Each structure stands twice: as structure tokens, then as C-alpha cells.
Amino acid sequence: MKIGVYICECGINISSTVDVSKVAKKIGKLSGVAVSRNYKYMCSDPGQEMIKKDITALGLDRVVVASCSPRMHEPTFRNTVEEAGLNPYCFEMANIREHCSWIHHDREKATQKAYELVSGSVARAMGLEPLDRKEVGVTPAAMVVGGGIAGIQAALSIADEGFKVYLVEKEPTIGGRMAQLDKTFPTLDCSACILTPKMVDVSRHPNIELLAYSEVTEISGYIGNFTVKVNKKPRYVDEEKCIGCGVCAEHCRLKGTVPNEFDMNKGKRGAIYAPFPQSVPLKYTIDPEKCLMLTRGKCGKEPRCVENCPRDAIDFKQKESIVELNVGTIVVATGFDLFDLSVKPEYGYGKYDNVITGLEFERIVSASGPTGGKVRLNGKYPKNVVFIQCVGSRDRKGPGNEYCSRVCCMYTAKQAHLVREKLPDSHITVYYTDVRAFGKGFEEFYNRIKKEGVTYRRRELDDAIEVFQKDEKTYVKAKGYKDAEADLVVLAVGLVPKSGSKELAHVLNIQNSGDGFYLEAHPKLRPVDTMTDGLFLAGCCQSPKDIPDTVSQANAAASRASIPLARGKVEINPATSVVDEDLCVGCRTCEKICSYSALEYDEERGIMKANEVLCKGCGSCTAACPSGAISLRHYRDTGVMYQLEALLREGGTE
Ligand SMILES: Cc1cc2nc3c(=O)[nH]c(=O)nc-3n(C[C@H](O)[C@H](O)[C@H](O)COP(=O)(O)OP(=O)(O)OC[C@H]3O[C@@H](n4cnc5c(N)ncnc54)[C@H](O)[C@@H]3O)c2cc1C
Q: Is the CB of 149 under 6 A from ligand 1?
């Protein structure tokens, strides 16, 4: 065996603590080492050229590079050796930067440790076997889960690239929270006016198939070839026949009695409804928990919806159905919920009917909302309006969240402006902790709102704030200020992960971060990828963000999701598990342990088989197998034992 060893100085990152030339010289004396060199930047072009030249000139059959973390440059060096004709899996890397030079100060000891690490890698290299890179075909279609602005944008972008997209939305319509907003900061565009054309584009796009009122229940497969089961809930209205005329809703016996979720329960609908007039798809839905026919089996003599529907579309016998989809990549865009105010009784929400959330305010101030856009409460126009920011966010003591929800400062400024516009004589006060006006045009917008006669009162983050009533009047108490009388209190409630996001993470095999939002693969370098190949994130499901950032992220996720679809094939990691059929007793222990469903039981032969495409090479099954029948290619016992022996020998512990 002829091994080439290359020790990187990494500028002074390694060489300031490790005597690299001494390590190179000592390593050069080990058996099997044909050449051992050190160089300033091994990852640079000249560094890589040096390795390639040696492979050709000296006929090297294994290469070891000692430098930084393999996460950084393992792919770089694998490509280097492959370009020189060596199998890329005959390459091994020792991390003498993060594992040595960066964490030690004693030059002599660090040099000895670097030598031991490199000698371990040299020993392991002797046990490496060549592996073939494998490719699998890709289904040229994508699924987008969640039809808010993030999902809508991602679906349109992928579809515009020419790929089929299935857009799965759990509510009866797409649109998400943006559809509920009145105007949008900082430009004050009408939210519906900029959103609804995109919703229509979705419904008309030849490449998009919309599955509304549906939820993903199961996913199997791997990047390029996912099989997804989607549960389509019954609307009790035949979607093919319904033309969205609304005659059914007009005649519903419960018209105007059921709280309308779209209006944050501030308005009423009937038991058959469309969430809002521009719903997409504009198909009516029967609420199974309210409809008299579905709850009691009787609605007068004859249900009026049935009597009056011009298309005979009502179907009380409709059942849920399972749709199976085959897709190559998936974008998750399931959005956010609002912080649960029941754990913060000091704000009086739910106790006083003049204390509302920012999202409820959006519906009240909207021309399409329950008051037709009039900021009126119990028939009266408020004179004193108080906004309180950071409700449930930036809460170091709990029970709120420590993170900043990023949109509340600006949506409060916007809402203060809307109050000023509609009620010019009102007194508007905002209690804030800091104003975070970080986006394009935000600071200018905030300054403009202050000039409109809005009083901003700063309070310390940890200082208590309370809403209370005395003599039938409502007040806001904050340290350092006289109690402020308020006819209306609007709470800038923070954003939290969507309910059910943990369960969905489990179905999709993605992770939640500490704050509960979905975890990206790398916060800086892979911000829209997940740790599961082929799944990408867009919008507020990843973290709170405003519409411009949501749209940018959706386009980024769409672009990432389109790459495998455009290539038509994906490379799979060949370092996968392999079952020794002679040793396997078919106990199925590995099957339960595998997180990727990569081990299948062969009923006929009574043994396990590993699926190379599903296997991610995590090694859990190899550790769990009681018969020692499973091994992991590239991490076979022989190589690992060689490495351990060398480490113990060179470390003087043998
Ligand atoms: C009060 C308030 C005012 C705001 N004002 C502004 C503003 O003026 N300007 C601005 O830029 N931003 C504003 N924002 C922020 C804005 O609402 C968000 O940036 C935007 O809604 C994020 O879109 P999204 O698609 O990520 O999430 P969402 O709008 O939450 O959409 C997510 C969608 O996914 C669906 N879904 C969830 N779970 C599933 C599932 N399991 N299966 C299928 N579908 C699912 C949901 O039903 C929903 O349709 C405001 C936010 C609030 C709370």
C-alpha cells in the first residue's frame, strides 16, 4: 500500500500551535507512507495540484489530509483524488484544527496529539475499500405543504420552472395569515390586493394541483422518490359541481350564528361557508361540528342548502379519502400560530372584551372584516387606544418566549397609523421595550408614525405591565408612567410554531429547534435546507419573519427544491449498511432502531435486507445488531480497529 499524507498549516490556524513540519517528518517514517508533506493551504489550488501530481507520479493508492473538519473540506479532497484517478472513498481526513490546534496552547503536546491523530488516520486508510458513487432517478414533481404566502410563492416558482407541484393546504382555502391582514408595513399596500392575484395564479397554473382541506399523513422514500399519503377531508360539497355561488350559505339555517375563524371569531358565518369571498378554491365547506344534518341528522324538513343549491352539489355522505402522491422534493411552509395568552392573565385578554390581539385588530380594521373596517367596539368608537408590544416575546422570565418575533414592532406601528387614519382625534399610546426597525424602509416608517402624533412610552423588558379595570374604565399600568386610560387595548402578540408542528416533524422526519420552529441544516450556509435530503423550509415555519423575508425564503426553497428535479438524478451516499446473510438471524432489532426505514425483513428467507437508497449511514443498526451481522461500508470494523490500535500505540497507552 502507498499512502500519501498531507498536513495543512491552515495559514497560522494550525501552524501557530502545531509544529507541522515535525509531524510530517515523523509520519513519513510510518510503514506504508510513501510521501508526507506539509503546506500552507492544502485546500488551495496549488495544494490540491500537489496531491494530484503525487497520486500520478508515485502511484498512491490511499490519501490522508490532516487539516480542518471533514464537514468543511472532505468533499473538496474527495473530488481532488477522484480527478487524479483514485477512488474518492480511498481518502481519509484527520481534523487537527478543531480537534487540536484551536483547543490547545502547549505547542509540544499539541504537536504530539496531531501526530497521534494523523497516525490513526493513516492506519484507518489501510482498511478503506473503494466504493462506487451511485445515482438514482428523480420523480420530476414537488410537494409544497402549507398554502400561506410562503407555500404559494414556492409552488408558483417551482411550477414556473416547468415541474408539477402538489400544494397541500389543511384549511378550506389557501392564503394563510396574509389573507387576514388589512394593510402591510412598511408600504401600506392592501394585503388582499397583492395576495389574491397570486392565489388565482395558483388555481390557474397548469403545473399546480391544489389539494385544499387536506393533510399529509405519511411519507416514505428518499430524495428524488418520496411517496406521500394525503388525507382529503370531506367538505360534504362536491368540488366538481360547486361553482362558489354562495346560495347555500345564504339559506343556511345557522347563518350568522357560528363564530368565523377567518375573522378571528369577531364575525359570524353559517354552518356552510367559504372563509372569505376570494377563497381559492372557491368551494363551499360544511362545518361538521355545527351543521344540524351532520350533528343531529336533521335540519328542518329538508336542509335548505340541499333545496337551494343550483348544482345539486351538497353531499352529506362524502367520506375522507386518501390520495397517494409521488414527488422528488418537498417544501414545508406551514407557518405560525399566535402566542397563547391564557398563560398571561395580567393583560386581561379574554376577561375584558376591549382587550384584543393584533390579528383581531387586523380583521376589525379590514374593509372585508366583521365591522366593515370601522374601528368600533360595542357600538362605540374608542378615544384612547393603547398598544402593548412584546407580548409573549423577548420574555426572559417566562412563561413567554425568549426570542423576538420580528414583526410586532412594525405591525404595531402600522396599526397605530390605521387608528390615526380612521380616528383622527384619538389618543394613541404604544408601550414598547425596544423598537426593532431593521428592515428596508422600517426606520423611516417608524419615524413617520411618531410624527403622526403617536406617543411611544419605553419600559424595561423585565418590568411588569398590567391591564386592569376600575369604575368600569380600563387602564394600563406600567412602571414609571401614570396609568393610561384605554377604551381599546391591542396586544402585539408574538409568533409561535404552528400547532401540530411537532407531529408533522415526526411524519416528515425533520427536526424542531429549541424554540419549536423547524430546524434548518445550517443557520448561515444552508438556511432553507433541512437535515433530511430533499426537504426544504420556507416562511414562518422556520422562524418568525415578515412577508418580504418570507417571499425571499420561499423563492430560495423553491430553487433548492428544483435542483434535483432539473438534474433528473441524485447521488446517494455509498457508505451504507450491509447485512451478512450468514450471520443474520432475523431478530428484527435493527428494524426498530432505524430512523429511515432502511431495513426490511425478508419473510421468505427470515433475514434482514438493507435498502442502500434509504440508508443514511448513521450506523445505529450496526451497533444494535446482537449477531454482529450488520456492518457499515467505509466504517468497517477492520479500519476502525487499525485506527484505535494506532492511536493507543502512538499515545503510549497500548
Ligand atoms: C398581526 C400580524 C400582522 C402582520 N402584519 C404584517 C405586515 O404588515 N407586513 C408584513 O410583512 N408581515 C406582517 N405579518 C407577518 C406575516 O403574517 C407573515 O410574514 C406571513 O403570514 C408568513 O407566511 P407563511 O406562509 O410563512 O405562514 P402562514 O401565513 O401562517 O401560512 C401557513 C399556511 O400553512 C397551512 N398549514 C399549517 N399547517 C399545515 C399542515 N400540517 N398541512 C397543510 N397546511 C398547513 C396554514 O393553514 C396556512 O395556510 C403580520 C403578522 C401578524 C401576526
A: yes
